[in-house]
Amino acid sequence: MNRLEEILALVKHVPPFPKVAQRVSEMLNDPEVSATALAEVIQYDQVITANVLKICNAAYFGLPRKVSSLDEALVIVGNDILKDIIITSSSARFYKGAAGEGYKLDQGELWKHSIAVGIMAKELGKYIKDVDQGSAYTAGLLHDIGKRFLSSFVADDFKKIMMKVVQEGCSFGEAEKELVGASHAELGGMIMSQWGFPKEIELAVLQHHDPDALEKDPLTAIVTLANALVISMGIGVGADGLAVKVKGGGLKRFGITPMHLELCMANLLTEIDRAQDLFNI
Fold first, then answer.
1. More confident residue, 136 or 93
2. What SS3 state is found at 198?
């Protein structure tokens, strides 16, 4: 079995994304969905239930008493925050341990980077009417999921990959694909497909390192830009961060200005602090 065959076999054995999370995300598309209906589904996932209650009782909400009822907690947090809690809680299990070790990311850095890109993508989504902010957060959060499963393969060929980047001036992803057999973005796209995520999220994960990504689908452009901005802020850079290539004037079509970008970056610093408290990053 060659390297690519090993990687494809690995994809087939990637643990499924929690069904409860996907079902609740679908239900949240209905603005009239009740907390009781959501609670009936969420209660079957102990991890999500525990996180909803823990986050609801966090200092952030400043409640005068402890909330122990899932129904009550769902009313307090609201649907928008609930979406973030659901997707974040369900994704956390895939980032445990040295998930990004092959990319020279210390323990927890890939997880923090992923949450930061999710927050940044959601912030950017505020300026584009055709992009759902929940989808932007999800795609941003999961954009590097391929690293979680490709890490050991990259570690084996790390020196060769970096040598190719330095000598040929190519991106890390291009060197990764040639020497390992697939890039983490390609692997991430395969995983999104296997998990049954919407096509636009699959494409955003798959194409977030394409040189012309800013010219593509709005969600792909947002995730690509969010990733580049988070890297520029030094959050979870890793060995591949300095070899990211993005070109094109795609942002002009969205009307996003440098001032918008500065505001998004400032908001991220506030939101990442909140996320650290809520999700124990």
1. 136
2. coil
- Whether the CB-CB separation of 115 and 109 falls below 8 Å is answered with no
250 is written with which tokens? 């795609």
- Taking the complete model, does pTM exceed 0.85, yes or no? yes
Count Cα atoms within 13 angstroms, Cβ side, for 111: 21
Domain annotation for the chain: domains and CATH numbers = 1-93 (1.10.3210.10), 98-281 (1.10.3210.10)
Asked if the model's pLDDT at residue 238 lies above 80, the reply is no
Residues 6+ away with beta carbon under 8 Å from 240: 103, 172, 173, 176
pLDDT digits (tens, 9 = 90+) for 101-118: 888 888 888 999 999 999
- Using alpha carbons, select from 249, 199, 207 the residue that is nearest to residue 227: 207
Closest CA to 112 of 238, 14, 218, 243: 238
Q: Residue 122 in contact with residue 137, Cβ under 8 Å?
A: yes
Q: How far is CA 126 from CA 56, 65, 120, 137, 281, in A?
A: 25, 33, 10, 11, 25
267 pLDDT tier (thresholds 50, 70, 90): very high
Cα Rg, the chain, nearest whole Å: 19
Residue for token digits 């010219």? 215
Reduced to 3 states (helix: H, G, I; strand: E, B; else coil), residue 187 is helix
Residue 231 near residue 105 (C-beta atoms within 8 A): no
